[in-house]
Amino acid sequence: MKKQPSPPNRRGRLVLLCFVLGLILIVMLAGTVYLQHLLGRIHYVDSDTAPTLSPEELDAYLATQPEEVNTAPTMNPEDVTFPDYDADIGKDSDVINILLIGQDRREGETRARSDSMILCTFRKSEKKLTMTSFLRDTYVKIPGYGRNRINVAYAAGGMSLLDKTLESNFGVHIDGNVEVDFYQFADIIDLLGGVEVDLRNDEAQWVNRETGSDLSEGTNLLNGQQALAYARIRKLDADGDFSRTNRQRKVITALLDAYRGTGLPDALSLLEQILPLITTDMTDREILGYAVSLFPLLSRGEVVSQHIPAAGTYSSRSIDGMAVLVADLEANRQVLRDTLGE
Questions:
Q1: Which residues 6+ apart lie within 8 Å of 115 measured at CB?
Q2: 82 with 169: CB under 8 angstroms?
Q3: 23-36 pLDDT per residue, tens
Q4: Helix, strand or coil for residue 332?
Q5: What are φ and ψ of residue 249, in 5° steps?
């Protein structure tokens, strides 16, 4: 008579299953704890409760800021019209709009004018990142403060007021903000091991004078201070701030290209050091949601850039002694709609 095979060891299988599930739970718990640790290294602000300046305090602050001599034709401020727009550009669920704010804060200042404003628009379906620089001298209407350059909005009311100013003047929706001052920008470049940038001869000589370097025309590996000096150049070109913002986007694009293939261990090590240098008004939940959506774009997406006001849609004028860019807001709104989508 044939001997029947032994029944499966159900108890042993159950023990193995519990062990595997327990191991998965431990890994998930450890990952959650580490993720919270990383998020805890970011400096958070509540943009709706951040300190604001009164109109009188803002006037006193601006009186301490030097004005460059300008020879632009004079224009009456009352001749500039400001239609109000709904913030519907980029409000589609397929689009994420994150505003990068760079400020040139001086010693003793808690907040300065925003020296750099780059809207990073991520279109998930197209795996495309569009970087839009808003020129700091653009003449706008700031809610509650009247007419001034766009960079004054940040000095007066921080991220929240800057967002409202962009929304009311250009109709663009902002999902969140990330801020870094220029000294932290230099530190981040150093932590990343520098950035490779192709320099013209006059650009190389400018950076050399500013930093005591010995760079030359062509591709150079720039450290933090060199990259900062390069990104701040505005007097070598006739279009001034337009070329300066182009250099800023060029540095960011070079960094993205250089670190697209970074492995997870190296990426986490860099995040440990970089996250404490940035400030945001986004919640942990928003950051995690955006990170999941944006990872494919940052690793292999297309990157394009532009500036606002767009070419042919503005005039250089002197208003109340300020050299400003008076933009055709409707034309620029259409440029944003065409490039960023609904």
A1: 102, 103, 104, 136, 151, 182
A2: yes
A3: 676 666 555 665 67
A4: helix
A5: -65, -35
Nearest to 281 by CA among 48, 34, 105, 114: 48
Amino acid at 339: T
**What homologous superfamily does CATH list for 45-192+259-340?**
LCP protein (3.40.630.190)
The token duo for 31 is 């990952």
* Strand 139-142 versus strand 146-149 pairing type: antiparallel
Per-residue model confidence (pLDDT) at position 108: 59
pTM of the model: 0.86
Residue 3 confidence (pLDDT) above 70: no
Angle between helix 182-191 and helix 224-231 axes, rounded to 10 deg: 130
Q: Where are the domains of the chain?
A: 45-192+259-340
Sign of the Cα torsion 116, 232, 179, 246 reads positive
pLDDT digits (tens, 9 = 90+) for 86-120: 888 888 888 999 999 998 766 556 667 888 999 99
- Upper half-sphere CA count for residue 340 (Cβ side, 13 Å): 35
